[in-house]
Amino acid sequence: MLIKKQVYQADRQTKPLIGVLLFLISIVLLLVTGPLGLIYGIFHSLFTGGFRGLGAYLLKIAISIDQLGNVMMQHLLNVLWVKKGGYQFGNRDETISSALGRNKQLKTLTGFGKAIDKILDLLDPDHSLNSIDFYIEPSEQIIDKLAWIYIENGKILSTLSKGKSTYYIPGGKREANESDAHALSREIKEELSVALELSSLHFIGIFEAQADGHKPGILVRMTCYAAEYTGELRADSEIDKIVWLAYTDRENVSQVDQLIFDFLYEQGVLL
């Protein structure tokens, strides 16, 4: 099983010479150790997981090659497949199919790009749309949660749980077989006594950081959505009080919420 991930992290600048050297080293390592690693990986996957294990191993390789292609062919694809002002190929953490899907959503594919998308849809319906964002494997060391992003007058709606000193963006965990929309709607109703307008629900991003109160290495993965609501906000369940926080309150929230604060601040919506 693969799940989508989008972790906010500011990029860093690399010196050109270092980039050239790392590229040459990576090519040598690929040519020298790649074939041996591939052969060993195939037999190891078959021995430990059978054909299902082999399929999962080869899928990881396919996704990695797709991500490599998104970087290697970015300039060509941006000319051939994307209209002016469209979403650009080239994000090293994204597959070609993901960037294709984003342009499909934005209606910025050229005729050539639309043709490629239709071919992919014949093989796998809605392939590009389902490929938006990049992929990692789930882990027992990751706590999977949902969060509701609601901003008013440059401040974000947050909560303080009973007996806690750290503020959290409202949300919670999914129950068995729940969709993100219904799980988040249920959690917000329980915590804040309001109903989310599911027709207005839209994806913001997925963020990961060290989980508060857990041993090092245990992460929380926060899938964030924004939505309008009906009703009157009122603290309920384990929530002690509702607060509106600005970016200057960043140090008073959890580590994963700090990443979300950074992202929203750079987007210009959190002041």
From TrEMBL:
All residue ranges annotated as the Nudix hydrolase domain in the record: 125-271
Q: Where are the transmembrane segments?
A: 20-43
Concerning PROSITE patterns, the annotation shows: NUDIX (PS51462)
Per UniProt, the keywords (alphabetical) are: Membrane, Transmembrane, Transmembrane helix
InterPro entries membership: NUDIX_hydrolase-like_dom_sf (IPR015797), NUDIX_hydrolase_dom (IPR000086)
Know the name of this protein?
Answer: NUDIX domain-containing protein
* Native source organism of the sequence: Aggregatimonas sangjinii
